[in-house]
Amino acid sequence: MTATPLPGKDLARLIKEKAKAEAKALVEEGLRPTLAVVVATDDGSTHWYVRSIERAAEAAGIACRLVDLGPDATEQVLIRVLDDLSAEPSVNGIILQTPLPAGVRVDELVRHIAPEKDIDGANPLSLGLLAVGQPAFAPATARAVIEMLDHFEVPVAGRNVVVVGRSAVVGKPLALLLLKKDATVTICHSRSGALDKYTKDADVVVVAAGRPGLLTGGQVSSRSVVIDVGTNVLADGSLTGDVDAPSVSAVAASLTPVPGGVGTVTTSLLLLHTTAAAREQSSSLVPGAVA
Predict the structure, then answer these.
(1) CATH assignment at residue 155
(2) Strand 239-240 vs strand 232-233: parallel, antiparallel, or unpaired?
(3) Are 159 and 107 members of one domain?
(4) Which residue of 52, 60, 139, 165 pairs with 208 in a disulfide if CB–CB is 3.0 to 4.6 A?
(5) What is the average pLDDT across 252-275?
(6) Residue 241 C-alpha from the chain's centroid
(7) 184 plus 105 within the same structural domain
(8) Do 144 and 262 touch, CB atoms closer than 8 A?
(9) Helix, strand, coil % (nearest 5) of the chain?
(10) What are the distances in angstroms from CA 173 to CA 63, 90, 237, 246, 253?
(11) Same structural domain for residues 233 and 188?
């Protein structure tokens, strides 16, 4: 048996087309959607990713403002920049890109991103709003998992879904989104013990722990839909996920690839969130939300 691949390319294209159409409509109404990306590092892979966002935004008709503060930026400078961008009417969405300079507290910085412009769900207020079912932007990666499940018509209502990883970027918000879709959710983490106690009986397994090859074929069943969120850079510069793809593919029903899976969808959602934020702000409705 070989798992059916669940690539993200076609879904990403559909989302980008939706973002482009909405951006065009906003421009015709006199508003150019604008995304600001704040960077404070000399990491080459980060700048490569930011350039990919800039290209995708341009193709969608969204203005992208890169605010490169350099690797020596202080926390105070970053706070001031985020406060200014949050207050600037022409900016609709804000992304604070990591990594950040040593000693800078990301948990403090994200509090200075206005919730209505927090298109990647970084501000803890956004997570709190999600938790109580109020309008807020979910982190794009967490939403990308939901979009992938919907696109490939994978049912989750009433089914057992295991999320491996409890980060505020993916694991926790994804669990909230899955609960909203009536899934029965289990979150596993470093203290959970043997994963197969949970994953063997799961209908859907989402792995977002940042550990290459963490999930193996012996930990899933033939009915498992496996979503690999991991993007780990190997010594040779290639990307690999959190799933041992050869062994899992030999057992599971379906599997998302890395690269070419969830990550492909994430960037397109940042664009869609930006247009949604622009639309909400133009209507003076805050915080922003997406359908």
Answers:
(1) 3.40.50.720
(2) antiparallel
(3) no
(4) 165
(5) 97
(6) 15
(7) no
(8) yes
(9) 40, 15, 45
(10) 28, 28, 29, 29, 25
(11) yes
